[in-house]
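INFO  loader      accepted 1 record
INFO  loader      residues=112
INFO  predictor   begin
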Amino acid sequence: MRSYLALFGTVLAATALAGCGTTPHAGPNRLAAPVAPTVQRGKTLFDMHCYKCHQGGEGGLAPGIRPVPRFLMRLQVRQGFGVMPAFPEEELGDAELEHILDYVVALQETGR
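INFO  predictor   done
INFO  writer      dumping tokens
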């Protein structure tokens, strides 16, 4: 099982690095209004938990988030890889994580 997770982590890291970029952070008007309540909640949660490192927060420590399957994003958040810490369910609930993913997917769908 451990070797499976290591292999999966390697694939995830390679996928993430292939799509790295410097997309600026989504400002309050990034998505066209109106947006679904889950997407708006996802933006709020992204700003609280993710913006610090991703997409320009505090010097843009991490790459912009690029399109990858939801299950890989979910795994990255839960397991953490590289310099990204893990966010266990006690810190970020499953429903909150799904809202964040809704927001990220909505950004991807707008091409921003």
